[in-house]
Amino acid sequence: MRSRPRRSLIPVAAVAASALVLSACAGDSEPTATGPTTGGTLVYASGDAEPTCLDPHVGGNYPQALLATQFLESLVSRDAEGEIVPWLAESWTVSDDALTWEFTLADGVEFTDGTPFDAEAVKVNVEHLQDPATQSSTGYLAVEKVASVEAVDDLTARFTLSEPDSALLESLSQPWLAIESPAGIARGMEENCESPVGTGPFVVDSWAKQDRVTLTRNDDYSSPPADALHDGPAYLDGIEWRFIPDSASRYAALQAGEVQVIDNVQPDVLVQAEGSDSLVELDAPRPGSSNRIELNSGKAPFDDVAVREAFIRSVNVDDAVSSLFQGTAERSFSPLASVEPAAYSDDSLFGYDLDEANTLLDEAGWSEKDSDGVRTKDGERLTLAFPVSTNQSIPAEVSLFEQLQAGAKDAGFDVQLDLLDLASWYAALGANDYDLVSAPYTKVGPDVLRILYHSDGIVPAPSGYFANHAQVDDTAVDALLDEASATLDEADRAALYEEAQADVLEGYYILPLYDQQNHFLLSTSVHDARALGTVSTPSFAAAWLS
Amino acid sequence: MSGSRAQAIVRWTARTVLRATVVLWASATLVFFITRLVPGDPAEAALGGPGSQASEEALDAVRQRYGFDQPLIVQYGIAMLALLRLDLGTSYALRQPVVQILADTVPGTATLAVLALLLAWAMALALTLSHTRSSRAGAAIGDTVEIVASAVPHFWLATILIAVFSTALAWFPPVSTGTPAGLVLPVVTLAVPIAGFLAHVMRGSLDEALSAPFATSAVARGETATGLRFRHALRHAALPALGLSAWAFGYLIGGAVVVETIFARPGLGRSLLQAVTVRDVPVVTGVVLVSALVYVILTVVTDALTRIIDPRIGIVTR
Amino acid sequence: MTHTTSPAVDPLLAVPTPGRRWRRVTLGEVVAVVFAVSLVVASVAPGFLAPQNPAAVAPLDSFQPPSLAHPFGTDESGRDVYTRIVHGAGSSLLIGLAATGIGLATALLLALVAVFGGRFADAVVGRTVEVLFAFPALLSALLVILVLGPGPVAATVAVGLSTAPGYARIIRTSLLRVRASGYVESARLLGHSPARIVLRTILPNALSPLLALATLGVGQAVVWASSLSFLGLGAQPPAPEWGAMLASARVYLTTAWWLTVFPGLLILATTLATTTIGRSLDARSAGWGQSGPSGQSGQSGQSGRPS
Amino acid sequence: MTLLAVEELSVSFGAGRDRTSVVRNVSFSIAPGECVAIVGESGSGKSVTARTILGLAGTGSHVDARRLELAGHDVSRLAERELQRLRGDVVGLISQDALVSLDPLRRVGAEVGDPLRLHRRTSARARRRAVVDLLARVGVPRPELRARQYPHELSGGLRQRSLIASGIAAEPRLLIADEPTTALDMTVQAGILRLLADLRDAETGLLLISHDLGVVASLADRVLVMRHGRVIDEGPTAVILAGGAHPYTRELVHAVPEGVPRHTALLAREAESAPVPAQAGSSSQMPADAGARPVLSATGLEKSFGRGSHATRAVDGVDVHVQSGETLGVVGESGSGKTTVGRLLLALTEPDAGAVLLEGEAWSGVPERSRRPRRRLVGFVSQDTSSTVDPRWTVEHVIADALPGGLSPRQRRERAAEALAGVALEPALLDRSPRTLSGGQRQRVGIARALAAEPRVLVLDEPVSALDATVAAGVLDLLDDLQRERGLSYVLISHDLSVIRHMSDRVAVMHEGRIVETGPTETVFTAPEHEYTRRLLADVPMRPSI
Fold it and tell me: Gene3D superfamilies of this UniProt entry (chain C) (predicted)?
């Protein structure tokens, strides 16, 4: 048995990670005159869709995570260096066969409804996630390998796995697996959706649909994660969590002082805000996959690696990224987000080279061009269907696709951009009616690679959903990912994931673009807000207003 | 006399209620069949769309629960019976009874629409009364103001208003704040196009009234220009605008879709937009029925008001 | 029973002469017609007004404010906004025209059935139109989109269908008025066949207001379609359709006002021009014959609903 | 002392080249208790003259006068505010059309009381009493009820009386009556004239504007004849009615068919020549030829409108027979059912009972299909031809529409020109729109169209009611000529007894849907049998015998 896995592997994320704690930047530029003051209500304006249920166990998407971070806590967290740190679980051990995990829980923690936090609560939560009636998808997948949870004693919870899972801690650190009050869960789904009960620094007071969620301070708060800036109850009296879908309105509201924090900030606004001395940016790229375009290798023409490479060589991503994101996003050359310690990059594969692209296409048999300048082969046009979900792609990203479309045209690709609503987009994917697609995936840890590139991910669920959009069907990759999933040794695991990433990159299955953008803009009156190292959701547990 | 009048009122009321009921029933029927045309498996939609990872069992359960496995006509019967009990079903996306969602969102939109309608009337009256019939330039300016007002897209107007009155002048908040100040910009945004339409109609009938022989005879009795407008012409000008108001209210509900999104106000319009994007059929049905109901009620009210103002129509005649 | 001259009217003008039939053309009408003609030119031959390629991206040239080289500035991909507006005129107008066409055709069909299909058909159509009226325009448009899914075609159909009830009411009234007119009675008294009366007298007179109505409708349809685009339900970028341009421009409002202002002004100017032309056509046809739609389409969309 | 003094009054409209003189150098005066009448046809400037006295010449008018003095006030120099004080107080106006001269949205009492409200300091209560008194004074029965009612609830006569009540409410010293009895039935007209005479006798100055010499004769002390803006003749009433000094005055006087025998041209008559009754007897005899088959006959016609208790019987047991070549005059007041009889004869509506025969064959009660070929035999001329021609058509098109089919375009144009010539119009009018023609020209086009179909019988519904007297006279002369030339039969429907008497061979008097009396014209007019006929004839304002 080894205690608490330590040491992160490759500190690639250091630069990005240091930016996570905002207080550092804000503190440097301004002389800190006074210390934290208690009181005040922070108004947060979210551009994310309003959750339909505040319980992140149900479904499990990013908007839920944003809110849940304020009032729910997980067993473990991840710090700025990418290392798993204690939270509601103070320590843990794992058996040699990697199938039994024992978590020692923090003592004296109570849910805000007065229910004590104990091992039984952990057991109830995992079972809640696994219950089909909960309709959990993110959390459900994360505890797929957990066979059972047993309350050994009040403060010891034992997880028994069906097979080794090196991603267990990372999974448990996510807000979608946060621990809720068993009494709260017992109220039933409808009520629990309205006001889930946790141990966090704030409590859900009320939820006015389409308008705001009102959060008030948990005066008895006592369970911050190990990397917290501040112990004890929050300084803020509460948070008004508003839903303002229109990005221009959101920014206008911030400028007008109606709100203090906004998310989903547009690149041009970020650039403008840089010059402002009343606004501060918090850049917290999400973990998991990078934003990338996936090339459907499951059908022609991208079943030919040469055509895939030709496409990737024909588009000038660097120029597009710099023009549209104006320096607010770094180009990525990795399947994983830069905040992931296991991220592996290879920029040599993605150089813009139109000549090379043309040569590759000529050799691949796409040597004819029709009157529109589109290449053909046996009378077939080199047309690429690119369904884009307007719900998932921000405007700048759509513009980026437009620019890539224009670039690929020069090489003879006819890229058909099709902006779709979510349902139609899923339908297009389910019908295998796409050659290019862009779908980010947020998850803590490199295990996301298994979801995205394991051939198991090609088989659609009954509803048609699948995650391996590139349709990478490579036994070598599968083997690497399976092995990594069962390998607890950090170094070995990292090496396996690096190899898998290299295979994916070299197979030209994906065109990495940049990290999943997650920019927040804060009024300078907000101090000590930070983004958690898990899924980069903002935490206001230590924040105060001046 | 009064007896026959009372009878006439009763008859009118009965006819009106019957007609309103028929319109509502027909609206419900129309919406029911239109929503059945929505592509995709309704059971899947009920479970969160194709993106959800619903199992076959879950889908079957939902089919049974909502009656999707029944023949269409049976489903229709079930839906109509449910409607009689004011049961509009449960939102697929929000997992809440639609009636609850409507109860939550109607007041906000109603406030917005009523205030906008009042403001539109005020603006239209101001525009109408300030314009001088004699001056050609005045008429041309009036025309242009009306057309521009009635042609300006809500979202563009809102954008400009926010840029000027929130960002530059900081007079009003750019998003709903729950205070009266937060209502100003959305209400103005909604009111301007309606004011344009109302003013156009009002100005037309004001001109007509001012050039009517009865206006000449009023002037010949020594009536002043102001007296002529307020005592005589205004009533005539108001009549067609009143007739337009029920329609205008519907227009406002349509406009609310845009305005509520931009100004981050909770309301019917925003619910509807969200419901359409995720194909949340029960919510769409609910919103459409509510607006049909509002339209029907308002038609009755404006009809009654018109009859009160205009004795020529009267309750007795058809 | 003489009709003595009304005191405010110049009696010599009241004695009609052929040349005075037309009202004086106003400056506004001239401007409107000139603008409308340029729009048509832009739709048919955009290259004539804007020789550049509207889709040509120049990433390093993005967000240029208006200048001599780019009179309306450039957008996020460095495309010339002026060029895109000119090239977008076609699709915007096409959406407006097609939507109005769909609306009017549907309305005409309904109205013809109502007027000539007998009492029962009239009742059915009348009720149907009344029911459709209960659905505010944007709501019925959203219903259509719910069925068809978002997109430019759906938006066009949606706007078109949602305007149909208003048009149907106006056309029906017009048909009924003409059918009850003295000149139709005269035609009957001359022993003309019903078919001849319908084709040569009723339809030409009843439908003459349609031109004015259609002109008024096109501007409104462009506005509605742009609203749908703004909501993400209509034409999508990178199509240089004005509504779509505006929708994507709103995001950059704070840093690139020109992206929002110019397409918006163009939509406004289009509506202003079409409305001015429509109203003057309306007024002229009303002055020409009493069959003119005065009071009906003078309020045009309004009396029904403005598309 | 003069109440009103007008010297060299000129009124023009417009400016610069568009300037048009409407009133030129008009001078007259009115003393208290005096009635001065201005007669003239449309566009003669008589109404503008009257309104100028009130300061209501209209927008864009230029008023120029050496003297324009009303009760000591120089009207041409008064400001609008001061004029407002005079209007309704010193000078009252009774407009021509009570149907539209009362605000339909206000109660009658409010309209009547307005001058008191504006010019007298009276309480609302006193005003209400005064209004009731006023209404009673002008002979409105049940004045309390009427004051509370709205204009549309009153009959035309009561409306006109209310308007007079409103005009005299503030006891003005001068009353301007602009066509006060136009559009009223004879019996009502008589009452109004008596009322005005009473006012005059009570020392109110009266300016009467009228085209009706009968009305003028019964009221006026002096008469001004206006034409083209000028006073061309003036003098004591008796002198003017005897033909005055100006030829136009004579024409005007002669244009009235009153007392002019059948088949005597109205306009061609020599002023001095005595009426020639010689032909009258023979012509009225002519159609009564025994054995002559009626062209159009109807027996037992009944027609109701509305249903149930709201039904009104418009035509109730009417028999009419029109012989070949004769004119049947149908006379009656508005609402007597005469127009419905016309429509039944035209087979535009089907009778509820009874039958119409055309040349002995069924005309009513047969399918339209079988009627259609015979429709051309029955022509129709309405009061207002402009509403019965397609607004898009030219005169040529209108007439050609009535011509038989199978003609070449050239033949059609020739035939249309012939038809125009037949009604004494120039072929130059062929390309004009009927709407651009004068009223007389339009009526002639209407007749030309009716004749182009070569009918046997014409139904003439108030064919000259909308025309000025001299124009009407021309049309009547034309109709008479055409009848003699072509052997046409006429059914002449009119409320104007003088027209009926002048044009008809036989007369049917209608009252409340029935024919109360029928017979040869002279018999009916000289020895009426029915009580109603006698009353009708008594109410005609007769010209004093010359």
Answer: MetI-like (1.10.3720.10)
